[in-house]
Amino acid sequence: MKTFFTLWLVCLVVGADSRAAAGQALSPPSSHVGVAFTLAPPLGLGADVAVPVGERVNVRGGFSVFGFSHDFDDEDIKLAAQLKLRSVSAHLDWFPFGGGFHLSPGLMLYDGNAVDANALVPRGETFDLGNRTLTSDPSNPVTGTLVVSFKKKVAPSLRLGWGNMVPRGNRRWSIPFEIGVVFSGAPTAVFNLEGSACGRTMCRNIATDPQLQADVQTEQQQINDDLSVLKVIPVISLGFSVTF
Q1: CATH number at residue 131
Q2: 0.85 exceeded by pTM
């Protein structure tokens, strides 16, 4: 983290252009504003706005959104899931060589990326919970929810790329491309089940039975263990920008 903020400070100081140290006057920054429409897996579709604050420095802000629905099975529990991507970011674009190559430290100011899923085991069908194979009670079938979201709503990020959304010449468009990472921290899953599950001899209510609740918690912990690899999110961004 110290390295990240050190880089940010270097960008601010050096971005004024090293030629100033030799006593050369900097050309005034363009007064134009650049607007870009972007495709940035895995953050979604978005738009950015950039303004120049120095000869080789832009300030940029934008958002990304996307939605997708998909049904799948987990341990024979049917999940109707909705992926909801919502994020807002801000970056400082530094062009150290005066061309299109840039370094862009920044912040994800809002991380609303999440998965919401409704769980169901149809009446009389078997499913696995913990180390048990159970049957969904025909008179009170198993239902539930799974929510995966990021606890950290603000996260640092770092990108590098090519293309200037606010060209310093007569050019009025560009195709910016970036790769980078968001230091988001791993998302957290909350898994709940209700209804009744039947063993060989009897049916028990999942919400009130201590052993079945412990099995639900074991399943939730396993999901969170699988999600732990997402502490850092890789980002690839391709866009088309126009200067006004």
Answers
A1: 2.40.160
A2: no
